[in-house]
Amino acid sequence: MAAGLKTIIALSFVLAIGFLLVILSSALFQSYLTLLVVATYCIAPLPNWICGRCANPDDFMESAGSAIVDFGRFCTGFLVVMGVALPALLAHCGLIQIPAMVMSIIGGLLIYGTIISFTMFFQEEQDF
Amino acid sequence: MSSSRLFRFPKPEWLNSPNTRTAGVYLAGALFSLGFFFFIDASTYSKSNKNGGDVHIKFVDWVPGICSALGMLVINSIEKTRLSADSYSYSGTGVAWKARLVLFLGFALMAGGLAGSVAVLVLKYIVPQYSFPTLYFGVANVIANGLIMLSSVVLWVSQNIEDDYTYNLAL
């Protein structure tokens, strides 16, 4: 039981704060482009999960399997940086304001951190 | 293994761990994304209301980035073990030669992309003496191509780390 009840409560609290920040950043400034950050961070762990299913991690000699895993990791890295780069791009081009950018970046990082922590806890439970 | 070393300083231990390799692949994706969004930022800025001048990003500015991305795809889709395949008797004739030819094409595409971005910067933005908000389009193009090249280098190096790791495991 790596993930206790307190951990789950704290993580859901952090997730709610993240969503609150992102929704505020879009609703306060009447520009709903920052909601793209939520979409980006929600699909960021997906390539890793899908490609992890495709490859068999047990055989070390087979080099064909690791290429798919690498591709998934590459896509995940791409999407994580995209979640930070997208609000910065929108703010630089004048489509959203600077406070909206800061709020959506912080909120997105909180959401992504929650997703990653949940995955880590579940993986630890699967090992035993 | 230590007797056949080339350099005086030993290779650090953490370079051989699979964790370093995973981090390298993530870092490569992050660097590629950073470069890509530098260029997307420049082209969005050129079409936005903030752009005062009448110089816009056209298809010419996109060509170096497309070349770099294609070169990265070609380089990293080659099976690395085939590059030294001629020393084994069971591999087919000329496999290593073909692999090296394709690898050369990939490197030529990537270097051509970087050089092309510098050429666009000089010919389109520096020679007509534009000031900075317009000059940023060319600079961002060079930064984007350099970051894509760096990402490809990181990916290449971290995939070679895995070969060392499996080799150590096999012995």
UniProtKB/TrEMBL annotation, chain A:
Keywords linked to the UniProt accession: Membrane, Transmembrane, Transmembrane helix
Compartments reported by the entry: Membrane
Transmembrane segments: 7-26, 32-50, 71-90, 96-122
UniProt feature coiled coil, ranges: none
Membrane topology of the entry: Multi-pass membrane protein
Family designation: Belongs to the OB-RGRP/VPS55 family.
Protein name in UniProt: Vacuolar protein sorting 55
Organism for this UniProt entry: Stereocaulon virgatum
Automatic annotation (TrEMBL), chain B:
Bilayer topology: Multi-pass membrane protein
Keywords: Membrane, Transmembrane, Transmembrane helix
The keyword 4Fe-4S is annotated on this UniProt entry: no
Location (main, coarse): membrane
Transmembrane regions listed in the UniProt entry: 21-39, 59-78, 99-123, 135-157
One Pfam family of this chain: UPF0220
Protein location: Membrane
Domain of life: Eukaryota
InterPro entries to which the protein is assigned, alphabetical: UPF0220
Family per record: Belongs to the UPF0220 family.
Protein's recorded name: Uncharacterized protein
